[in-house]
Amino acid sequence: MKQTMTRGNGQISWLLKVLQLIIFPCILLLAWEFSVRWGWLPETLIAYPSQVVVKFFVMLTDGRLLEHSLISLKRLFLGFSLGTTLGIIMGTLVGYSRFSARLFEPSILGLIPVPPIAWIPLLVIVFGIGEASKIALISIGSFCTLFLQASYGIRSADKELVEVAYVLEKSDWSLLLKILLPSALPSILSSMRVAMALSWTLLMASEIIASSKGLGWLMWDSRNFSRPDDMIVGMVAVGILGKITDSMLVALEKYLTRWRQTYRNA
What is the pTM of this model? Predict the structure, then answer.
């Protein structure tokens, strides 16, 4: 009897969790559907959710959506990886070495306030409208985010731990690997999620301005030629892929910082 009640309570709890996940998206979809049907939103510019679902699977099966998605993902990961790697290296160097801070930090901090979008004309002049300019734009955004957080994380290390390392005559390399980088790791990993979100924004901007392939180009081309269902399919694809990439970073953060006792683990 107790086992039956426990199983029943477990099923109810599971159903409640599912309802919590789907109730708000369902409300949004219904509001969207009836807003178009009742003429609150222009039917020529905004497609019905039902139309979008059908078109999503059509574009998925004929390969168009997969082609544009793979092109965008390639640009995203190349730019994100390059910018993130350089940002972590330079941020660590500046945070650890006062000489490097005096040498590099003023110039980098002077460039960081320039919005990444403002770099587009210069990047197109230098690299052309090919892949290099798009990857460079994404790299700039990722670099700025990771540089700031890496340097901050290194400088925020526990002073007492650093002093203990000096008392034990640990080498600079050991101090960096065993104390400073682990201390900065949570800050670095959380900022990677911010950098990834920014990378998606910059990717869409670069593909709209100078491209003939990719999800950003698909949305812009659909908008220009009055294909609202195609445009929203592109937006949905970006949302799904963005969620997947963010979830990958969350999983990486949980794994690499599993030693931390935080509210998340409570």
Answer: 0.84
